[in-house]
What we know:
Elements: H1 2-46, H2 50-56, H3 58-69, H4 78-89, H5 92-97, H6 99-105, H7 109-133, E1 136-138, E2 141-143, H8 146-153, H9 157-174, H10 178-192, H11 196-211, H12 214-243, H13 248-261, H14 274-289, H15 295-300, H16 308-336, H17 350-355, H18 362-392, H19 397-412, H20 417-441
Antiparallel strand pairs: 1-2
Amino acid sequence: MFKRAEFTDMQIIETLFHVLNQIDEIFWGYIGFSVVFLLGGFMTWRARFYQMHVLASPLQVISNLHEETKKNDQGINPFKLFFASVGGMIGLGNVVAVLTSLLVGGPGALLWLWLASLIGMIIKYSEIYLGVTFREDRHETFIGGPIYYLQKAFKNPILQKVMPAAVAILLCIYGIEIYQFVVIVDTFTNYFHTPRVTVIAGLLVCTLFTCLGGVKRLSTISSTLMPFFMVSYCGMTMTYILCHYDLVPHAFTLIITSAFTGHAAVGGFAGAGIFVAIQQGVARAVYSGDIGIGYDSIIQSETKSQKPQNQAQLAILGMLLDTIICTLTIFVVLLSGVWKTDIHLLPSQYIPHVLSEIFPYMDSFMTIFIFLAGWTTINSYFVVGIQCAKFLFPKNGKYLYIAYAICAFVFFSYYDQTKVLLIMSLCGGMLMTINLIGIIKLRKHIQFLR
């Protein structure tokens, strides 16, 4: 009897995840794709391709921000916030999660990821701009983001309360970065043969230590760790690509043709049509770059900068870094050919497996590397989740959220990585939809100064 009941429970869970997967495919293949490209395209046209202007003059962006903030004391250094933001964007989403776009959608998914990232830069600029514009002064610091600018987007008193509350609830869920938590737990458990409970407990302690210090502690830790992560990872992946430079032209051809025709089954790759490639490319771009999610707007609203465009321009450069690292990850696995073999690996094992061809001790290095990359992202999201919980419950929200986070991290640590990513993908889709409604309604408040 007991075994039969246990089997039934597992069947129910599997059925639930199957239904959620169908919803995710429909949303990102049709609705999410349309929303990102239509709104991003409209904003890009309205701004006269403003992101290209910013990308062409990165030193001017940095100089303007540095000169302006030298005179201001209130708030947090904008460059520390930049690394705190990058800590949330650039992490295991770029090294592990983005590989699902290739493994499920085929090489063509990368082209859709590039397009989504390019027009997503204007969406990111807009949400940061609005976050700084409508932020509130809290004595020594500021607080902003969609939970505040959405209050200005609607005239209906009910929607003024319901929409910010809905985003706050979703960000509380999204703020528990269960996917990257699970990847770190799996990696440490498998490599060091450490009891799973011990790894979970240790990671929870590290996370709580950082997050209880707020955005200030987060920005300090992220500005220390992220440069090492970006430089070392880019160096290794670019070295691998240079060692296989003769395969690069064929890879580009494969990416472009697969984006518009799909990709047939080959080796261990089951094959994918064009809509699967679109769904995977757009969904992973939104997830890795936090396009329209609102997390970044909350983090960067605490800047010393009084000019919204200065901090928002810096966010465009952050999106460029995010896209570059996603591209390097996919190219390494694409050039290796391991994506179309019958080899059975977790998404987190592909990069160590491939880079071990030319770099020694990759398993040891990537284990530590995955911890640093994932931990900074977990911290960034958690801090935002705490702020949203305090918005919902000013008195006890912080402590309620910490209790909820501990339960969620422990519970999902025993689930498959792909199932956990599915939850983050669906939650991100709902957040993006609500936030983009707010951006389009407040579009007249957004300026694109050259």
